[in-house]
Specification:
With 359 residues, the protein is α/β, with parallel strands linked by helices. The protein folds into 2 domains: 157 residues, P-loop containing nucleotide triphosphate hydrolases (Rossmann fold, 3-Layer(aba) Sandwich), CATH 3.40.50; 133 residues, Winged helix-like DNA-binding domain superfamily/Winged helix DNA-binding domain (Arc Repressor Mutant, subunit A, Orthogonal Bundle), CATH 1.10.10.10. 54% of the residues lie in helices and 9% in strands. Strands 2-3-4-1-5 form a 5-stranded parallel β-sheet. Helix 1 crosses helix 2, helix 9 crosses helix 18 and helix 13 packs across helix 16. The protein is globular and about 65 Å long. The relative contact order is 0.10. The model has no long low-confidence stretch (mean pLDDT 92).
């Protein structure tokens, strides 16, 4: 499989913005493992550029690390010490229109809340007058939307463009698993969604259930705990959110039903639901039989990875830890029923896109 799949549209958009002679500040964000880093690295591979992966540590240490890594790549010495001046000097030392990528920018914000203001000053006083393409990326959706994109942010109004990177299209399944049948591809999609990193963890030479045993049911594998990591990065009290999604999967799809199932007051349940919608883990839909009554919308878990994890790992942790073979057996017995919903969703998306059913 080619290491870089799809994303032609996103690459084209970045390239068109880059070709504009003016300086540009671009914001790229989306959940972990969605492919942000792969996208920007593909974009910069034929350009004068510097890619820097931020860490959550003292900004003085980050400044030194930036200087050292820049020197190693470009064999150029940076004399400045403060982070904003270091970035400005790095731009001056690269010819043409350089691309500077700060990956996981929220780590700097977590370390120093004044970073958005510092970057605003850098952009307004220095970089906006130079030919430079500055890219800020982040996996913390909440922080990127509040601290970088929100109108209250010092960086508001400075960006030239933004992209919330989503999942790959279902049509890309064939590029990951060219030797598997469409039915086998859909089984994998039902567990991983179209998250590139997750798809790459499933091996073509293995059956679906062999892959599940070696990933979701292996306590040392990232897919076994990724859901918890994702929510803990974004939310306080993540267990409340897990319980809400579990309730939705179990048929509690209206706010009052969900609140009752998870023991959260009706007056507070909306803020939890709104947060999960913002993270694109759940969504509202109107049942076909009530299309003329939009107020009767119900909630469903949108994300296949979370849906699978909640149904087969979160609710069966003791069995997964003590007897993964028995856990696989339980999944086998239930998975065709689980896949009924997945196949309906695939058909719905196909109808929305083409107006015709999948053959």
């Amino acid at each position: 499989m080619n290491g870089f799949v799809d994303r032609e549209k996103e690459l084209k958009g970045l390239e068109e913005m880059y070709q504009n002679k003016e300086s540009a500040l671009f914001v790229l964000y989306g959940r972990r493992r969605i492919g942000k880093t792969e996208l920007v690295k593909k974009f910069i591979e034929d350009k004068k550029s510097f890619y820097f992966l931020a860490r959550q540590q003292d900004l003085g240490l980050e400044s030194e690390r930036f200087k050292n890594e820049f020197g190693e790549k470009h064999d150029k010495f940076i004399g400045a010490d403060k982070l904003d001046r270091v970035i400005d000097e790095a731009v001056d030392k690269l010819e043409g229109k350089p691309v500077i990528v700060i990956d996981e920018f929220p780590y700097w914000i977590e370390e120093d809340k004044s970073i958005p203001s510092i970057m605003q000053g850098l952009w307004d006083e220095k970089l906006s007058d130079k030919e430079v393409f500055l890219v800020l990326t982040g996996s913390s959706i909440s922080m990127m939307e509040t601290e970088v994109l929100d109108y209250k942010s010092p960086l508001y109004g400075r960006r030239s463009g933004q992209l919330k990177l989503g999942e790959l299209p279902i049509s890309a399944l064939g590029e990951f698993f060219p030797e598997k049948s469409f039915e086998e591809q859909l089984e994998i999609y039902g567990a991983t969604g179209m998250i590139p990193f997750y798809l790459k963890e499933f091996k073509e030479e293995k059956t679906f259930f062999q892959n599940v045993e070696g990933t979701f049911l292996d306590q040392l594998h990232l897919l076994n705990e990724e859901a918890e990591i994702l929510l803990r990065e974004e939310l306080r009290k993540p267990n409340n959110y897990f319980n809400i999604m579990e309730a939705i999967i179990n048929g509690k799809t209206r706010p009052n039903e969900i609140a009752q199932a998870v023991k959260i007051d009706n007056t507070n349940i909306s803020k939890y639901l709104n947060k999960l919608e913002q993270l694109e883990l759940i969504e509202k839909e109107t049942p076909v039989t009530m299309a003329d009554k939009p107020k009767n919308r119900v909630y469903k878990v949108k994300d296949n990875y979370f849906r699978f994890w909640l149904r087969y790992v979160y609710t069966n942790q003791s069995l997964v830890e003590s007897n993964p073979i028995a856990a696989v057996k339980e999944i086998k017995q239930d998975y065709s029923r689980y896949m009924g919903h997945v196949f309906e969703e695939v058909c719905r998306k196909a109808v929305e896109k083409t107006g015709t059913m999948i053959k």
